[in-house]
Amino acid sequence: MRDTQTLLSSPLSLAAAALGLTFAAPAAWANDAAERLTERLEPLENYQATFDQKILDGAGERLQNARGEMWLSRPGMLRWEVEAPYSQVVVSDGNDVYLYDPDLEQVTVQPMDDRVTHTPALLLSGNVSDLTESYDVVYEQEGGEDIFTLVPNSADTLFEELSLVFDNETLTELWMMDSTGQKTMITFSDITRNGSINRSLFNFDIPEGTDVIREEF
């Protein structure tokens, strides 16, 4: 696990430990980096993993920890379940995104427009060519891992920088940083790539008695 202060500029970039420093390979040119990222993502039809998430402020102070499980399937389908310290569920069925808070008995429903699909998790379930067209991509190798850093071409995104870390062909970490300097670091484990996923996971039936908030952009 890397030290969280190394974020290249991402809700997930980290510094090497003092005695375990490795020298990063030179960053690849943008076109080559985009091609390398495409090679990693295009074969990915679905993905399942448990996750640990840390959020830090601009000074590196920990704001929040969370853990849970996620399922992703192309095109545009996602289920993200936070199990602790509180329960929360995000589901995308390809048309709408549902954010459900069982403690509040409230669900927020948003259409799958460009702004929503540019959130980090949903980026992975989208079209790879759209991804490489919407972001400048930088590639480097560090400690045997491949790191792709994405910088948005548009200001209308929820992050300033996003980094994807791969061990061989497998996505193992996600780093992000927003405009306030807040950092998010997500580590994936128990990973299954292109396995069998029950499609019903991407359907969300609103529980009876739940307050529904519909947002239109």
Polypeptide structure, described:
A 12-stranded mixed beta sheet has the order 7-8-9-10-11-1-2-3-4-5-6-12. β4 and β5 form a beta hairpin. It is mainly beta and 217 residues long. The protein has helices at 30-41, 114-117, 120-124, 128-134, and strands at 46-56, 62-73, 77-84, 88-93, 96-101, 106-111, 135-142, 145-152, 161-167, 170-177, 183-193, 211-214. The protein starts with 29 loop residues before the first helix and ends with a strand.
Uncertain regions spanning at least 5 consecutive residues? 1-28
From the alpha-carbon coordinates, what is the Rg to the nearest angstrom? 17 Å
The averaged pLDDT comes out at: 79
Number of helices: 4
Order of helices and strands: HEEEEEEHHHEEEEEE
**What is the helix content?**
10-25%
User: What is the strand arrangement across the widest sheet?
Assistant: 7-8-9-10-11-1-2-3-4-5-6-12
Beta strand %: 35-45%
Structural class: mainly beta
| Biggest pleated-sheet summary | 12 strands, mixed
